[in-house]
């Protein structure tokens, strides 16, 4: 069934487990992610991000993501991740996405508050949830090093002010992760996660989940993370599946598709189980 972030993250926060967001750019990825959620009987967040739209346009994705979510036996949030423009966030809401992230993390603090507050007001009138970002989670490209990252870490007191003023439903925090393939060993600031968790009520989001260790995930969730974002891992898994299909002598699209769906489902299932820990989730 199609739900918004509050439906899946508030129980997760209460019971201290994590719910995965898995970004998708095509039908095979969507089928793999939703198969994994149904196999594990777990809620899931599926969607796309503004930087991924060249690979899968928003409207086209909405034609299958939304009906698939509605039909699913488990709770599914269809989320527009890292919306960079007001217009695209509104388009996602009009198409029926049940959740949007408006990423104004590179704006000044006051602009971030103002823009996200306005979008939250509108999104709530659609019955959709909103994620904001404070501090900044960068990409792994270029020369970003662990030492430079701390400059952008989320400040707990400011997080309190930000969530109070914007009215958002979930907050992405910068605590040492980056998007994409890690070029260094990530070192998460767990104390900061706890400090933010202790001061604000809304569920916390960890971006840049691909490449973190199982231990890091368990600890981050224990410290207060409720939503974990993954893309690179399933993106790589999908291309590995194509290689495997070729190795097995399959070279038709119709042979390759099941390899991709199954591989994505397997990788997603592992993550869902890890984030959920031993908690039994009521759907
Ligand atoms: P990765 O691609 O590093 O898993 O990050 C995904 C993400 O945070 C999407 O918002």
Mind explaining what this structure looks like?
The protein is an alpha/beta fold and about 280 residues long. The chain has one domain: TIM Barrel, CATH 3.20.20. It has 11 helices and 9 strands. It has an 8-stranded parallel barrel, surrounded by 10 helices. Helix 2 crosses helix 11, helix 4 runs parallel beside helix 5 and helix 10 crosses helix 11. The chain is globular. The relative contact order is 0.17. Bound molecules: 1,3-dihydroxyacetonephosphate. 1,3-dihydroxyacetonephosphate binds next to strand 4, strand 9 and helix 10.
Gap from first CA to last CA: 10 Å
- The oligomeric state is single chain
Estimated radius of gyration: 18 Å
CATH topology, which one?
TIM Barrel
Strand order of the largest sheet: 2-3-4-5-6-7-8-9
Biggest pleated sheet: 8 strands, parallel, barrel
- Taking pLDDT < 50 over at least 5 consecutive residues as the criterion, the unreliable ranges are none
Question: What amount of the residues lies in strands?
Answer: 15-25%
**Small-molecule binders:** 1,3-dihydroxyacetonephosphate
The average pLDDT value, as a whole number, equals 95
Shape: globular
Number of strands: 9
- Percent in helix: 40-55%
Number of helices: 11
């Amino acid at each position: 069934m199609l739900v918004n972030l509050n439906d899946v993250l508030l129980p997760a926060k209460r019971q201290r487990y994590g719910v995965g967001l898995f970004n998708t750019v095509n039908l095979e990825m969507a089928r793999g992610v939703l198969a994994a959620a149904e196999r594990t009987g777990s809620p899931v967040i599926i969607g796309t991000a503004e930087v991924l739209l060249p690979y899968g346009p928003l409207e086209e994705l909405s034609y299958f993501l939304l009906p698939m979510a509605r039909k699913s036996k488990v709770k599914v949030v269809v989320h527009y991740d890292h919306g960079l423009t007001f217009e695209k966030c509104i388009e996602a809401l009009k198409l029926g996405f049940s959740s949007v992230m408006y990423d104004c993390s590179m704006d000044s603090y006051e602009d971030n508050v103002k823009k996200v507050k306005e979008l939250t007001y509108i999104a709530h009138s659609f019955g959709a949830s909103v994620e904001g970002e404070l501090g900044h989670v960068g990409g792994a490209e270029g020369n970003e090093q662990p030492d430079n990252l701390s400059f952008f870490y989320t400040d707990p007191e400011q997080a309190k002010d930000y969530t109070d003023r914007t009215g958002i439903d979930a907050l992405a925090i910068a605590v040492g992760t980056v998007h994409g393939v890690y070029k260094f060993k990530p070192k998460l600031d767990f104390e900061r996660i706890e400090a933010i968790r202790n001061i604000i009520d809304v569920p916390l989001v960890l971006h840049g989940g691909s490449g973190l260790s199982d231990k890091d995930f368990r600890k981050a969730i224990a410290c207060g993370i409720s939503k974990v974002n993954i893309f690179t891992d399933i993106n790589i898994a999908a291309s590995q599946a194509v290689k495997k299909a070729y190795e097995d002598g399959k070279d038709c699209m119709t042979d390759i598709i099941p390899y991709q769906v199954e591989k994505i489902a397997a990788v997603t299932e592992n993550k869902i189980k890890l984030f959920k820990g031993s908690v039994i989730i009521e759907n």
